[in-house]
């Protein structure tokens, strides 16, 4: 997929990278969709794939409950949240090889990395332990850390703050429109992952769109690193001045 458009692209320069987890570092689409579809059926609702993409993927559980179950009373919504809290840490997942390889390469080069997710701290710890990537991330931001979930920029602003690097000097890697919107609102450069044409991610502010990070070459330079896609240098990664 040619995701660069026509003509030369300007090269962005960043000092850190912030990764989403679900759909970027790990594949949980089926598990997440099944969880929410099962919960919805218990309340007489049927969720379509569009509902999952629009209200679930990349969203905090609080947002999903508010959007899809607004008619429920406070006690019922809290019971529903308890169901999610109990099931979410145990969701099945598989690692996405292209992302894992890029994370390892960036971490080995000393690039500050953050994992910014709508998932729980418990699940983040489980995922990073299983993938052997816990030492790679200097910072993790989870749903417990923020009040306003994606597409609000809070999570990425907090990730940048914890890294000690302005959000405008960070690259955000996301797969969901709400996540791209959050990164864009924070002022970061956004790279989207998608199996489609990426139009929805571009509409939310993705500067670049690729199908798999395995397509992106990470190349050492005298000043740091550069990310190359289809022979084009997209992003240079250097130390924060």
Summarize the structure.
By secondary structure, the chain is of the alpha/beta class. It is built from nine helices and twelve strands.
Distance between the termini: 35 Å
Note the run of SSEs as H and E: EEEHHHHEHEHEHEHEHEEEE
**Poorly predicted spans:** none
Largest sheet: 6 strands, parallel
What is the fourth-level CATH superfamily of the largest domain?
Answer: HAD superfamily/HAD-like
Strand proportion: 15-25%
From the 3D coordinates, which CATH architecture of the largest domain would you assign? 3-Layer(aba) Sandwich
Number of strands: 12
Give the rounded overall mean pLDDT. Answer: 91
Helix content: 25-40%
What structural class do you assign from the helix and strand content? alpha/beta
Strand order of the largest sheet: 6-5-2-7-8-9
Query: What is the class of the largest domain in the CATH system?
Result: Alpha Beta
Number of domains: 2
Q: What topology emerges from the helices and strands here?
A:
Layout: E1 12-14, E2 16-19, E3 26-27, H1 29-41, H2 49-55, H3 61-68, H4 74-87, E4 94-95, H5 97-108, E5 113-116, H6 121-131, E6 139-141, H7 154-163, E7 170-174, H8 177-186, E8 189-193, H9 199-203, E9 208-210, E10 216-221, E11 224-229, E12 232-237
Parallel strand pairs: 1-12, 2-5, 2-7, 5-6, 7-8, 8-9
Antiparallel strand pairs: 3-4, 10-11, 11-12
């Amino acid at each position: 997929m040619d995701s660069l458009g026509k003509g030369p692209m300007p090269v962005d320069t960043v000092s850190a990278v912030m990764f989403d987890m679900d759909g970027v570092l790990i594949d949980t689409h089926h598990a997440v969709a099944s969880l929410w579809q099962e919960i919805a059926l218990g309340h007489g609702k049927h969720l379509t794939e569009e509902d999952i993409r629009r209200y679930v993927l990349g969203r905090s559980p609080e947002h999903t409950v508010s959007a899809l179950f607004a008619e429920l009373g406070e006690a019922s919504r809290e019971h529903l949240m308890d169901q999610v809290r109990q099931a979410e840490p145990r969701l099945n997942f598989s690692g996405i090889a292209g992302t894992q390889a890029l994370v390892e390469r960036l971490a080995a080069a000393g690039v500050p990395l953050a994992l910014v997710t709508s998932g729980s701290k418990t699940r983040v710890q489980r995922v990073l332990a299983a993938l052997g990537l816990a030492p790679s991330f200097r910072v993790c931001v989870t749903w417990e850390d923020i009040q306003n979930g994606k597409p609000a920029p809070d999570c990425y602003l907090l990730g940048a703050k914890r890294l000690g690097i302005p959000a405008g000097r960070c690259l955000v890697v996301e797969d969901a429109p709400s996540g791209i919107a959050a990164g864009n609102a924070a002022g970061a450069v956004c790279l989207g992952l998608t199996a489609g044409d990426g139009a929805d991610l571009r509409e939310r502010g993705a500067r670049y769109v690729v199908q798999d990070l395995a397509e992106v070459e990470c190349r050492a330079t005298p000043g740091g690193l550069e990310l190359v896609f289809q022979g084009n240098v997209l992003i240079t990664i250097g130390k924060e001045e």
